[in-house]
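Whether sequence alone determines local backbone shape is best considered at the level of individual chains. When preparing material for the folding task, we compiled for one chain both its residues and its backbone structure tokens. No coordinates are needed to read the tokens, only the vocabulary itself. For completeness, the protein is quoted in full, as a sequence line and a line of structure tokens:
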Amino acid sequence: MMARQIRLAMMGVGHVGRAFLQLMDEKRELLRERYDLELVLTAACDSSGAVLAPAGIAPLALREHKLAGQGVAAYASGVAGMSAEAATLATQADVLLEASPVNLQTGQPGLDCVRLALDRGIAVVLANKGPLVHAYDELTRVAEAKGVGLAYSATVCGALPVVNVGRRDLAGCHIRSVRGIFNSTSNSILAAMSRGGSYEQALRQAQLDGIAEADPTLDVHGWDTANKLVIIANSILDQPAKLENLDVVEGITGVTPEDIADGARRGEVIKLVAQALWAGDRYRLSVQPEWLPESDFLANVHGWEMGIVFDTDIMGVQQLKVDERGPVPTAAAMLRDLIALVW
């Protein structure tokens, strides 16, 4: 008996996209045996262009092509200059995987790709936060109207199932507060500073280690964390929000080694904390460095780890964290979402 084929179109073949291609190969037999599914990549697109192949693209071959520094346009049957939007319109796919770079200013080109896919009745799995930050209400309304799936657990802390826990497992709760450490780059830099050395030295080492991007602005100024908090507000807390609705967004660039040493003498640890606090009529949303007692759960979210604390009225205080290194866990979250949509 043949497994059910699910045709995939991948927008963005960067670190996460390449990790997903690897998982397509590694998990092929498990998907067949456990879920009766066969994933077939029928389209892929990056900044160089696109390749459309209804019969399927070999995932590992495309991954190796990208790792060799080649753009998708140079792959067999690739089309140079084909935009992500054009590829989305042309593809024959059941699910669009949106893993293109985050664009805080406009959400593009990911936003239009998601719009086009949903309008065509193609389900969408997102790792890219930009479309949700800019148009969460619109996209969820269109998905519902079209009767197609829209999943995005990979956009908030990767493999840590923050969205799934909040939306499904805390059903019936009033969530009094959400507190979390959502950015492993800033968390790693603060940890390095606590061991001695300046912010600049810690950032440079994080870049050499591959933890921080060459341009770390989104991470160290708090905007990556703010993006994730906006998605939590919309999807879990049912509070419409965009970046401009956050009360405070402050990163870690003002923290000094002397501050950290002084805090240690007081028995406190500094962390970049996202918070949604119920204030009687709405949640107040903030991202800023906070001094935490060493006994605090978030004070013990170390280095690469990310963590979250839900304080609820009827399900108590729930605390989760993950040690997530590299892009594979985020790609795995996309696979998790994909299975949930089609199985």
